[in-house]
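Service request form, structural biology core

Requester: graduate student, group of Dr. S.
Request type: structure prediction, single chain
Budget code: on file
Notes: please return the result as structure tokens.

Sequence provided:
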Amino acid sequence: MEDWDRLVETWTATLKAVDRLGGHTNLASAKRAGITHSKIWGLNILPPAHAADIQSVEAQLGISLPAALAQVFLQCASSIDFLWQLPHDFPLPEAFRGIFSGGLSLSLGSLRDHELSRREWVQTCFPDPDSPYDAVWHNKLAVIEVRNGDYIGIDLGDGHHGEVVYLSHDDGEGHGYVLGADFADFLRRWTPLGCPGPEDWQWLAFTSGRTSMLKSDGDVADQWRKTLGLERP
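Core staff response, request fulfilled:
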């Protein structure tokens, strides 16, 4: 990705903006506030993976990774952890009331476990490919785990191959929403917003329908960045 450095700069700027608001971007601050759900805060990026690492995961899963995702792992990072949380009493506008935190957790090393979990969801809960709800879980690759049991996945089907899709296990409003044309496009859309979420009710404000994808431009996005004190990249 030629704009990788810009993405990293924006993640870093987001953390600085949250710090200015008195939020939490490191373990010590989170502990003082009684927040214990994660030991990884701020921004942690590991070096790119090797081709052999990609091939190993593909062999274990029996699929080829979508090109844009593989490119991120091979050219940018094998693992990205990015996490922030606003102060408990921070006065958020009504439109953004649920966006008290944000972050991204992506790892080649975790991909197998995420995907096997998705397959188990399909087998035990969403087995019917003719059901509109179940079908969203089929023919996907689970990439980012959401702490409530949902996943952000990538479509492997013909006609929509590579699209980033939200997979809700409990009738979430964002179920089946397309968040990006491919994984690189998803990062380019999500990052300028500070990666709010990843639960669907935290990013739905930046969509206008199931196929609108995340909108990092426009009045809503600008109002959100103003709320955070985050400059438009």
